[in-house]
Specification:
Two copies of one chain form a homodimer. Chain A has eight helices and eleven strands. In chain A, 28% of the residues lie in helices and 33% in strands. Chains A and B meet through strand 1, helix 1, strand 5, helix 5 and strand 8 of A and strand 1, helix 1, strand 5, helix 5 and strand 8 of B.
């Protein structure tokens, strides 16, 4: 793949450059390059060149190309059919990590997010672990929401939220199907959001979640914990989100000196 | 689980509250609560209470508790053995997304990161897709690195990097086994880092990557693209990183008004 000049002594340098590496490793590297180009929208009408052309373009063997496309198919990024070739399955949307934003807000311009409200209930007593995260006593109660969020006819994420009683009461009667909870909080409580702490995990989808999200059981998904605070620092919303990783990318610009 | 008061009309409210929901959904919710508590270090010596106690503490059925623990075991977060109980497998380290930092720098205080240098080679011609990402001509060449990064005797991530020729030349002869590339760039080139664009994917590990990272084939991993720029905005380093998701959490604080 590359003309290679040997590096400093004492390191493991493959004799013949990249092309001498195991095929599986070359396939992984090629899959990474293709994933980056696919999600950057580099292939006209989402149609990839055929294996022969990809092989030539990337200086890789046909076998490595086939393996790389197989990895991307297993990720749900492309589909492959004889006579049709390799096509991008569904656009992969960028979800920014640069600022706090709801899903519909983040995806403005990509289409309308529709929320299938599976649970919207007032709870008189919060589960203890949730109350602790909300920094209230369980007896303060709250509102429990579960929404399956759709875009362009496919599920994007499954969001479980617990809101404090006051904020929840203002939000639960509103248009939960069509609006972000963040926007509803700000519009209906007079509490502007301030910040959220998030923790992003990647996990295999359990069978139930996979069925709801319409992905294969065991597919990789993001599992995101998010605790959102209004101005002044009061926690009002704790969420657990399962996000389809074949449809969403988390994007950020990180600065060396810290957030700017 | 909760005393439930019915919410506004026209929404799907389960009659008996959370406990009437399918067991798989209750297990997922409980797994989320437990994951959050485990990664917050809430269980003394990484040992979880037995099923009976967890059932009482979380107001969940024994079956839901067992299913939740099974999900966390499948994630690699806990191990379960008869007579021993449920113990946390390995600490899950937080990798901050609030600022640009190398892995060793991020994990200061968690132990020393050791880098197994699998590839360190000067390439006379960059792959075209990499050159484009580095915003140079392929004939400018560069340095190709692949490092398997270890902490506490276990692999954490597999990092493939391409550096521009000048920055790569300064770095390739240095202590790649013991140091972050970011620190080496700053120390040996006089180019302070400025920022990086990152894209985070979650994918199932292919068999080869899984073997290198010592995880089951198909386990969920983070696949991260990162392009790092030095002061003035010049791109010097493009990376493709596979990160064990059972050992690392990506954490950030997001602000409503954007990065602050």
């Amino acid at each position: 793949m590359n003309r290679t000049v040997s590096a400093t002594a004492g390191r493991r340098v493959p004799a013949g450059g990249v092309s001498s590496r195991p095929r599986a490793e070359r396939a992984r590297q090629l899959a990474d390059v293709l994933r980056q180009q696919i999600t950057a929208g580099r292939f006209d009408q989402g149609r990839l060149p055929d294996e022969r052309r990809l092989s030539r373009r990337f200086g890789a063997s046909r076998n490595a190309v086939r393996d790389a496309l197989g990895l991307l198919r297993d990720e749900g990024l492309v589909s492959r059919q004889p006579g049709v070739g390799t096509v991008v399955s569904t656009p992969k949307y960028g979800h920014g990590l640069d600022r706090l934003a709801g899903l519909a807000e983040t995806l403005t311009g990509c289409g309308n997010v529709f929320n299938e409200v599976r649970v919207a209930e007032t709870v008189a007593e919060l589960p203890a672990a949730i109350a602790e995260r909300l920094e209230v006593h369980p007896s303060a109660g709250g509102v429990h929401l579960e929404r399956l969020r759709w875009l362009a006819g496919l599920p994007l994420s499954l969001d479980t939220s617990y809101l404090t009683a006051d904020v929840g009461a203002a939000v639960v009667a509103e248009d939960l199907a069509g609006r972000d909870v963040f926007a509803l909080i700000e519009e209906h409580t007079g509490c502007p959001l301030e910040r959220a702490e998030i923790a992003v995990h990647a996990v295999a989808a359990d069978a139930n979640t996979a069925a709801l999200l319409q992905i294969p059981s065991g597919a990789a998904v993001f599992a995101i914990e998010r605790r959102t605070r209004v101005r002044g620092g009061r926690a009002v919303d704790v969420e657990s989100i399962r996000m389809r990783a074949d449809r969403l990318i988390l994007r950020a610009t990180l600065h060396r000196g810290g957030a700017k």
